[in-house]
């Protein structure tokens, strides 16, 4: 019998029992919940009764984390992209940290072991890089994050990640990853491109907004200024012509 003692799962974990024939010395206990501590109890029985109980406390391995929601692009500036991040409720282990990934091409996958810093990616001719790592306490609720703000971010003391300012001539795509580490195992999951495809969703930041002002509004203001200037010039010209024509006449 396996009885749950503690778990990372948000759903109830029911006890499970198995019965095996005489002579079995090894058995795989199926149907257990990942990242859960169980009290495993073994009892041997025959026609004369049951023997003493033997028990042991064990953890099941963590599984691949729950996939994050895709970052929502809020606006794009000259060298930044502001996105909204949503926290992940991971059913299969702890949330150890978040990764924010930037890519310059519309790929739906990448080699996880090739994810590096911006400068390392430049040296290796990669089109994607880790721009920041955030701790779970930084994403407890929906959080706005500015990609390209020029700061350094780190969730541990081993390494900090440079959130390099973005080049205005390039198109960028943003993805969110979650890292789960527990008892020597590490699992990572990234936002998916579609419900039936596991990979990275690459979001294009629409160029119709710049520093909070829409391009349409800027165009309208420019046209209005030009028209206003032309009307002013025409008014001055008409005034000068009238003054020149009637300026020398005196009325009695």
TrEMBL record:
Signal peptide bounds: none
Membrane topology (UniProt): Single-pass type I membrane protein
Pfam families linked to this entry: Fn3_PTPRU
Subcellular location: Membrane
Presence of keyword Transmembrane helix: yes
Principal place of residence: membrane
Protein name: Receptor-type tyrosine-protein phosphatase U-like Fn3 domain-containing protein
Organism name: Homalodisca liturata
Upper taxonomic lineage: Eukaryota, Metazoa, Ecdysozoa, Arthropoda, Hexapoda
């Amino acid at each position: 019998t396996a009885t749950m003692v503690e778990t990372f799962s948000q759903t109830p974990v029911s006890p499970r029992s198995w019965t095996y024939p005489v002579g079995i010395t090894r058995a795989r206990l199926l149907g257990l919940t990942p990242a859960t501590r169980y009290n495993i109890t073994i009892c041997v029985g025959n026609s004369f009764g049951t023997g003493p109980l033997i028990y042991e406390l064990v953890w099941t391995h963590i599984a691949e984390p729950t996939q994050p929601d895709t970052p929502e692009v809020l606006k794009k500036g000259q060298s930044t992209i502001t996105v909204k991040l949503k926290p992940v409720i991971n059913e299969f282990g702890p949330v150890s940290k978040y990764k924010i990934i930037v890519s310059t091409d519309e790929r739906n996958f990448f080699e996880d072991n090739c994810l590096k810093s911006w400068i390392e990616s430049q040296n290796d001719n990669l089109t994607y890089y880790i721009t920041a790592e955030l701790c779970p306490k930084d994403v407890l609720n929906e959080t706005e994050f500015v990609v390209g703000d020029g700061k350094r971010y780190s969730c541990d003391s081993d390494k900090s990640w440079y959130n390099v300012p973005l080049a205005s001539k390039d198109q960028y795509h943003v993805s969110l990853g979650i890292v789960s580490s527990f008892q020597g195992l590490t699992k990572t999951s990234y936002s998916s491109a579609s419900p039936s495809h596991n990979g990275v969703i690459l979001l294009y930041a629409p160029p119709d907004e710049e520093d909070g002002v829409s391009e349409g509004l800027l165009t309208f203001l420019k046209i209005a200024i030009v028209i206003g200037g032309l009307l002013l010039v025409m008014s001055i010209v008409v005034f000068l012509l009238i003054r020149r024509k009637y300026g020398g006449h005196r009325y009695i």
